[in-house]
Specification:
globular, 174 residues, Glutamine Phosphoribosylpyrophosphate, subunit 1, domain 1, alpha+beta
Length: 174
């Protein structure tokens, strides 16, 4: 999903229940007027922690032991105050920036995508976008539970573009 005004996008992983959908929808109106990554990151982290805490509380009340894979994770990318950012918010409350790496993926295919991206970074003669499509296809094929929807976003100061058309990673033409 993407923000209504700012060049900022995010994708969830984990329990994609109604509450997680509502959390992601609520971020579309996130106050980014400060242009300060620290302020915005704290707000996102607080909302995610509240969401995951409420999810764990409901599981406990129903007699089910909460486990880490029931928590929602978020990956955010974008520009705020003229500064780029790639940040993971995991289900334990940990916030990890990945801008220095330039790439990150979350969820059951996250590790596979990171390894594939690293391997493909050494390949010449293929466009960066095609490398990302192959990375996504590899992760989806290798990871149990990893599937569409998945996105490749091009984030620029002037906006966000979804560069992956439906079915492109799997080789299907829409």
């Amino acid at each position: 999903m993407k923000h209504n005004e700012a060049p900022l996008a995010w994708g969830p992983s984990g329990n994609w229940g109604l509450e997680a959908q509502q959390l992601c929808i609520s971020l579309t109106d996130l106050d980014v007027s400060s242009g300060d990554w620290t302020v915005v990151t704290k707000d996102i982290a607080d909302r995610l922690a509240k969401h995951n805490g409420e999810q764990r509380q409901r599981m406990t009340l129903s007699g089910v032991q909460p486990v880490s894979d029931t928590a929602t994770q978020l990956l955010t990318v974008g520009w705020l105050g003229g500064q780029p950012g790639i940040t993971e918010f995991d289900g334990t409350g940990r916030i990890t920036p990945y801008l220095d790496v330039g790439f990150h993926a979350i969820g059951s295919g996250g590790v596979h995508a990171v390894v594939a991206q690293f391997a493909l970074s050494k390949v010449t003669g293929i466009s960066p976008l095609d490398k990302l499509k192959l990375t996504l296809q590899t992760a989806i094929q290798l990871a149990p539970g990893c599937d569409f929807p998945a996105h490749i976003w091009r984030i620029r100061l002037d906006g966000i573009e979804d560069v992956l058309s439906p079915g492109a990673a799997s080789g299907h033409t829409p």
